[in-house]
Structures are given as C-alpha cells and as structure tokens.
Design brief:
Layout: H1 2-17, H2 20-29, H3 34-41, H4 45-52, H5 60-70
Length: 84
C-alpha cells in the first residue's frame, strides 16, 4: 500500500515539476556516460537521451531507478519556482 501511494505521489510530482535538464546535470555531475546509466538501469541510450532532453517523460519506476543510480532524490529533478 505504501509503495503504491509513493508511486502515485511521484507520478504527480514528475508530471508537474520534472526538469529534464536537471536529470542530465545529475548524470554529468556523477561523471557518468549515457551508456553507463543505460547498462546499470536496463534502459536504452535513446530512451535516456529523450528523458534528458524533455522529448518524453520517464515512468515513475524508471525515474526512481535512475535516481538510485545517481544517488539522488526526486527533489533533485524538480523545477524550482520562487515567488516574491
């Protein structure tokens, strides 16, 4: 039950606030190549590239897997909006 709720919440966050450039920045800051992440996560290189360039959205379970590889969390790939 808790995992299902987590996936639903992550799905909502991802849909509204996902920033693909931050996903690319995380990978680069970890010194990883697309090929390495694809091998570790079981993804294709074009699939990862599409996520990083905003051409498609990663499913919640795939995003969690990528973030685990990067040792990051969902908040690291969110758009930050500051209102004054």
């Amino acid at each position: 039950m808790r995992i299902v709720i987590c996936y639903i919440l992550i799905g909502i966050i991802v849909m509204k606030r996902f920033d693909p450039t931050k996903l690319k920045d995380l990978r680069r800051s970890r010194g990883l190549k697309l090929r390495e992440v694809a091998e570790k996560g079981g993804f294709s290189i074009p699939q990862l590239s599409n996520w990083e360039n905003g051409h498609s959205m990663p499913p919640a379970d795939s995003l969690i897997k990528v973030l685990d590889i990067y040792e990051a969390n969902i908040f690291d790939v969110q758009k930050i909006t500051v209102t004054v």
